[in-house]
Amino acid sequence: MLSRRKMLGGAGAITAAAAAASVSKVAMAALPEPVMQTKPDTMPPLAPNTGRPYNPVVTLNGWTLPWRMNNGVKEFHLVAEPVVREMAPGFKAHLWGYNGQSPGPTIEVVEGDRVRIFVTNKLGELTSIHWHGQRLPNGMDGVTGLNQPGIPPGKTYVYEFVARRPGTFMYHPHADEMVQMAMGMMGFWITHPKQKHPLIDEVDRDFCFLLNAYDIDPGAATPKIMTMLDFNLWSWNSRIFPGIDPLVVRHMDKVRIRVGNLTMTNHPIHLHGHEFLITGTDGGPTPKSTRQYEVTADIAVGQMRQMDFLADEEGDWAFHCHKSHHTMNAMGHDVPTMIGVDHRGVARQITQLIPDYMVMGERGMKDMTEMEMPLPDNTAPMMAGQGPFGAVGMGGMFSVVKVRKNQKRGDYSDPGWYQHPPGTVAYEFTGALPDPARFKADTSPGPGSMPALAKPAQDVEVKVRKPAGGHSGH
Fold it and tell me: Where is the composition biased (Basic residues) (predicted)?
């Protein structure tokens, strides 16, 4: 729930906050009141009640930061602070963020708006904010030591510039960046066009979220900030499936999804059941001559992509990163492969002594969605979520686009599972299966592209699992 009083409740709290920020009471009273949010739910769009009108976005498992108008300037207040983020039901992480959450709230403005952002530092070290993709005065760019001094703990700095071009942007620190971004300090920024734009279509529903990743040991709560590649939690807005909300749309809605990547690798984001156009990047709207229909968009580190599509197919459509490891939760990189070995009885006994012991199932990892496997406190199973037809063997960067004919305009509530028309669900074939027809041809081994340099004296087939040396340092 949004709370305007959580940090600054009444005159006494204003005095305390003024002392903490080492500024005068008069100056503190002039600040916009910081608005806080701790619930992980997707909040309704924030319709503008001042300034130029626009169609607001919906931040997946997030919210939009309110503002105040002050002599024609839109004023916002961001508070950098430690936060607790529920990444999935039963699993909370100790992160850093803004205004009670990680990522911080989305900032929405209109092209041509003069914007003033007050940033209060409640961390234990210097910080700053870089306004990723914005055209602005060099001294407002937010790189500590290069464009400005770092914001000391307890201090409030002011950024002020004109939002010069419409598009999809983000904000994040450029101060102790490895730590602060690994801890979750980031947020979305949307600049809406001030008038009808030839390259920006009007849409019925406009969603946004950031891609982020963490390395949190099972049973722990704080990310390991030194990790470079082997992350075990791949998330959208610091949420993992099944904690990521669905994207609910009405049949035949024109839908826009804006995605920004602040992880350490690229992500091929894939939508089922529809084709979309890349209509914008963090460089601005794309020329129509460059657009082509896609079902997967690869989003590199530091990039934004804006995808538009017509929701003309009813159903519950998967929407996810197509890197298979990125649809898993709390994944260990040194888990031995035991496919083909029945070890379930032994594994069950071991987990009674070592709760975080984990090994791949004899038939693959999908078994884990059905095993009653004890987990350490404060972690998430590798695959979770119960669909209408059973366990969903997914985790991480996975959600569902729910398209419904009877969804009302502006209604983002979950309509439940799709009711499939008769005869439109895959079913078991119960008839007799004919013997397979074998292709009758020469079955001798192919010659290869050239003779082998060395060949074993006889064919060898490995029958046992040999110890693995590991490759976690790659």
Answer: 465-474
Q: Cis peptide leading into 152, omega within 30 of 0? A: no
Q: Is residue 212 part of a domain?
A: no
User: CB atoms < 10 A from the CB of 216, how many?
Assistant: 23
Assess contact for 46 and 63: CB atoms under 8 A. yes
- Whether 410 is covered by a domain: the verdict is no
Are 93 and 238 in contact, with CB atoms under 8 Å apart?
Answer: yes
Predicted TM-score of the model (pTM): 0.83
pLDDT tens per residue across span 10-37: 333 333 333 333 444 445 458 898 999 9
User: Domain span at residue 82?
Assistant: 37-200
Give the span between the Cα atoms of 200 and 192, in whole angstroms: 9
Q: How far apart, in Å, are the Cα atoms of 351 and each of 290, 348, 357?
A: 54, 5, 6
Q: CATH no. for residue 82?
A: 2.60.40.420
136 occurs within a structural domain: yes
Q: How many domains does the chain have?
A: 1
Q: Which residue is it, tokens 């004296």?
A: 457
d(CA 378, CA 249): 33
